[in-house]
Amino acid sequence: MTETIKFKGVEFRVEFDYQPEEPMVMYYPDGSGYPGCPEEIQITKIEHQGTDFFELLEGEFEAIEELISEKIRE
Predict the structure, then answer these.
(1) Pick from 4, 5, 66, 69: most CB atoms within 10 A?
(2) Counting Cβ atoms within 10 Å, is residue 42 exposed (0-12), middle (13-18) or buried (19+)?
(3) How many CA atoms lie within 13 A of 3 on its CB side?
(4) How far apart are CA 57 and CA 52, in angstroms?
(5) How far apart, in Å, are the Cα atoms of 26 and each of 30, 34, 71?
(6) Starting from the edge strand earliest in sequence, which strands make up the sheet with 10-19, in order?
(7) What's this model's pTM, rounded to 2 decimal places?
């Protein structure tokens, strides 16, 4: 997937893999259950005007993932 986000005043084009949240299931008919799974975003590319910023922004991935998550929920 791809989203354009504004981070620290700069617009970045971010490519990422996305796994939506899976809800918990207490019990299936056979008595088993499923603990669920949180939403997961894995950034694969970050660009600004054609320049790769992936390595430069690696320490900021958590904040960038939160911005992406907010955009997906809109």
Answers:
(1) 5
(2) exposed
(3) 20
(4) 10
(5) 11, 7, 30
(6) 2-7, 10-19, 40-48, 51-52
(7) 0.81
Classified as helix, coil or strand, 7 is strand
Distance CA 16, CA 47 (A): 12
Section 4-12 average pLDDT: 96
Tokens 């900021």 sit at which residue? 60
Task: Confirm if 44 and 65 have CB atoms less than 8 A apart.
Answer: no
**Model pLDDT for residues 12-27, shown as the tens digit of each residue:** 999 999 999 999 998 8
The pLDDT score that the predictor gives to residue 27 is 86
Burial class (CB in 10 A: 0-12, 13-18, 19+), 30: exposed
